[in-house]
Write a structure and sequence with these properties.
disordered C terminus, about 325 residues, transmembrane helix, MetI-like fold, mainly alpha
């Protein structure tokens, strides 16, 4: 990817975020419901309601509301949450690290698990194990993340309670954190009891998000390895006496990983969006859980800030995947 390509992607990213901002702003004001109605008391007078609407700028026209809001966003001011009466960026900054840690843990689990099974499938190609792996993987592909979450709650939280059902850390742990990245901070500061507890709380939501991703990695990488294994350079290495495992890992894998990487990047962005339901099921205090509360409370500034945050993550991840793909296969990127 050349510098001009990167600049074009960044320009498109800015335009895309602007489009997302326009769409979400308009949709939130079209759907039924008045956020002020969620805040007023039964004894509020019409004057009180009018003053509250004026305070949040809801008495202005749609175009004027958007101009004021978007101008503030460009200055780094996403407004004040209607339901929590706190700065929107402060709320997002406090919850985003939990979601990112969960999503990256699920990504690592999904890629490593899916990669190992795909390699096993490539080695077992033509044997009785091959169709069995395809059948099992097909079942995993058919089950969405929220169904995994509910199943894990019943299996590992109720019938065989080995992991915590909710939360991010045991309230009894009095560890003081300097950042909101609890998992990373507890590891680098050698607070291993806190690290183990945080990881235990993360296991079930991580599995719920990571298992569908692992199934996608298996299908994509297994097909790519099958195509790579019949290429001339692999056949030549086979004639030289290279073992099947070395053929897959040393020769085929490096050329098969490109399509898998691209699809994994796309799926990762979808997985971050999937944290909304999974975090709710496990009462995990991340950005997705807060998004549901914001929708229930008709908290327009908070919803807008969360949607823009998810949009920015989606765009940045896709740009990063393109850069990694270009680094791994520069000739293909130059040709593209």
């Amino acid at each position: 990817m050349t510098v001009s390509d990167l600049l074009n992607r960044l320009i498109m990213a800015v335009l895309t975020l602007m489009g997302v901002a326009v769409i979400v702003f308009c949709l939130l004001r079209i759907v039924p419901g008045d956020p002020v109605a969620m805040m007023i008391s039964p004894s509020a007078t019409p004057a009180d309601i009018a003053a509250l609407r004026a305070h949040y700028g809801l008495d202005l026209g749609l175009a004027q509301q958007f101009a004021i809001w978007f101008g503030d966003v460009l200055k780094g001011d996403f407004g004040t949450s209607i339901s929590q009466r706190r700065d929107v960026l402060e709320l997002i900054g406090g919850r985003l690290p939990a979601t990112l840690e969960l999503a990256f843990a699920a990504l690592v689990f999904g890629v490593l698990t899916g990669g190992m099974i795909a390699v096993l499938g490539a080695l077992a190609r033509g044997t009785k194990l091959d169709p069995a792996l395809d059948f099992i993987n097909g079942l995993f592909l058919a089950v969405p993340d929220f169904v995994w979450a509910l199943a894990l709650v019943l299996l590992l939280g109720v019938f065989w309670p080995v992991f915590p059902l909710s939360g991010r850390i045991d309230p009894g742990l009095t560890t003081d954190f300097h950042t909101d990245f609890y998992l990373i901070e507890s590891l680098v500061t050698f607070k291993f009891p806190a690290f183990a507890d945080i990881l235990a709380h993360m296991v079930m939501p991580m599995l719920a998000l990571g298992l569908p991703l692992a199934a996608i990695v298996v299908r994509t990488l297994k097909e790519a390895l099958a195509e790579a294994m019949v290429q001339d350079y692999v056949l030549l290495a086979r004639l030289k006496g290279m073992s099947p495992l070395r053929l897959v890992l040393q020769e085929a894998l490096r050329n098969a990983v490109g399509p898998t990487l691209t699809l994994t990047g796309v799926q990762f962005t979808f997985m971050i969006g999937g944290t909304v339901i999974v975090e709710r099921i496990f009462s995990y205090p991340g950005l997705g859980n807060m998004a549901i509360d914001a929708v229930i409370n008709r908290d327009l500034p908070l919803i807008q800030g969360i949607v823009l945050t998810f949009g920015a993550i989606f765009i940045l991840v896709n740009i990063l995947v393109d850069l990694i793909a270009a680094w791994l296969n520069p000739r293909s990127a130059a040709h593209g």
